[in-house]
Amino acid sequence: MTSILIIYTGGTIGMKLDPDTGSLKPFNFEQVEQEVPELKKFAYAIDTISFTPIDSSDIQPHSWLQMVDIITEQYDKYDGFVVLHGTDTMAYTASALSFMLENLSKPVVLTGSQLPIGMIRTDGKENLISAIEIAASKHSDGSACVPEVCIFFENELLRGNRTSKYNAEHFRAFRSDNFPPLAQAGIHIAYNEDVILRPTDKPLQRHTYLDTNVAVLRIFPGMSQAYVNSVLNIQGLRGVVLETYGSGNAPSLPWFLDALKNAINRGIAIMNVSQCHTGTVDMSAYEVGRKLMQIGVISGYDSTTETALAKLMFLLGHYSSVEDVKKGLSMSLRGEISI
Ligand code: ASP
Question: What is the DSSP letter of 142?
Answer without folding.
Answer: S
